[in-house]
Design brief:
The protein has about 120 residues and is an alpha/beta fold. The protein has one domain: Hypothetical protein PA1492 (Rossmann fold, 3-Layer(aba) Sandwich). It contains 5 helices and 4 strands, in the order βαβααβαβα. It has a 4-stranded parallel sheet. α3 packs parallel to α4. The longest helix is centred in the N-terminal third of the chain and has 20 residues.
Length: about 120
């Protein structure tokens, strides 16, 4: 099974409601990956609402996410990913690792179909 990392906006200066919307968008993308026969790695859900955890600065999450990404087969950059410095860094890291970067639900389907055919 191919593992697809979900890259998208998490933080939002407008508050918790908007952060939850970003988490929900990533969750929907992750559910789609699972429904298509892939494995979704969704950092949004892995550390949801851990903001402000004592002893863990933002850099901890960002470094950890890049470590997780290295263990994946592709990255799915979901809507509004360009609005997130973290998601931009994830896409750049994926490209540096020569991992496929998927931008649409159809890209996910095509990636998983070609993986199953190989």
């Amino acid at each position: 099974m191919k593992v697809i990392y979900i890259a998208g906006k998490y933080r939002d200066s407008r508050g918790a409601w908007f952060i939850r919307q970003n988490i929900r968008a990533a969750e929907q993308a992750a559910q789609f990956v699972w429904q298509q026969g892939g494995v979704a790695l969704c950092p949004h859900l892995n550390t949801a609402l851990f903001d402000g955890l004592p002893g863990c600065a933002d850099e901890v999450w960002l470094r950890g996410d890049l470590e997780l990404l290295q263990r994946c087969d592709a990255v799915f950059a979901i809507e509004h990913w360009r609005d997130s410095s973290g998601a931009v860094a994830e896409v750049e890291h994926a490209r540096a690792l020569n991992l496929p970067v998927l931008f649409t639900y159809n890209d996910v389907i095509q990636f998983l179909v070609s993986a199953h055919a190989a």
